[in-house]
Amino acid sequence: MKKNKSNIILEKIKNGNSTPIYELYELYRDEFVTWSQSNYKSNKEQAQDCFQEAMIDFHQNVVSGKLTDLTSSLKTYIFQIGKFKMLNLLKKESRLTYQDNLQVIKGKEVEDFMNDDKVYSQEQISEAIAKLPTDCQKVLKLYYFNEFDMESIARELNYKNANTAKSKKSLCMKGLIKELTKLVKVLLVC
C-alpha cells in the first residue's frame, strides 16, 4: 500500500523528527492568523497563541499514537484544533454568550427549552453541568464546547458506536435542562 504525504509526515514526527512540525508551523501560521481574524474577529496575538497551542496538540497526538492516519489534510486537521482553541479562548473571554452556543444545538430535546426564551449565564451552565454525572459532563463538553461529532465522542469515550454516543448525549442534555430548571427555581425562591 502506497503511503500518502500526510502519513509520511506523521511517521517522521512519530519517529522523533521535529523538522516537519517547524515546516508546518511556518507554512500555515500566517494563513491561520488571517483566517481567525476574519472568521472570529480575534486579534493577531490570540490567533497566534491558538495556532501555537494547536501545533502542540497536533504534535502530542502524533507522538502519543492518538493520531496515526488522517482522513483530512494536515491543514484541515490543524485548523480544526486551532478553531476549537479559538472558540474556547473567546468563550473564556466572554466574547461569546451561551445563547450563541444554544443556537448550534440541534434536535428535539432542546426545542421546548429554547421556546421558553431562557438565557443562562456561563456560570449557571457550568454549575448545572458540574451536577451531572462525570460521563455526562464529558459528553456535553466534547459535543458543545469541543464540537466533536458523535463518532469522535464514541471513540474518545470508548462507546460502542456513534448511535450510543448520540443516545447518551440526549440523556445528558435532558439532565442538563433539568438541572438548569432546578437552578432557576432556586434562584426564584431566594
**Global Rg:** 19 Å
CATH domain class name of the largest domain: Mainly Alpha
Number of DSSP-assigned strands:
0
Please, how many helices?
Answer: 10
Multimeric organization: single chain
Poorly predicted runs are 95-117
Could you please say which CATH topology of the largest domain applies here? Arc Repressor Mutant, subunit A
> What class, by secondary structure content?
mainly alpha
The biggest beta sheet, please? none
Percent range for β-strand residues? under 5%
Distance between the termini: 67 Å
Q: Which outline best applies?
A: flat
The secondary-structure element order is: HHHHHHHHHH
Could you explain the architecture of this structure?
- The protein has 190 residues and is mainly α.
- It folds into two domains: 5-92, Rna Polymerase Sigma Factor, Chain: A (Orthogonal Bundle), CATH 1.10.1740.10; 98-189, Arc Repressor Mutant, subunit A.
- Helix content is 74%, strand content 0%.
- The protein is built from ten helices and no strands.
- Residues 95-117 have low confidence and may be disordered.
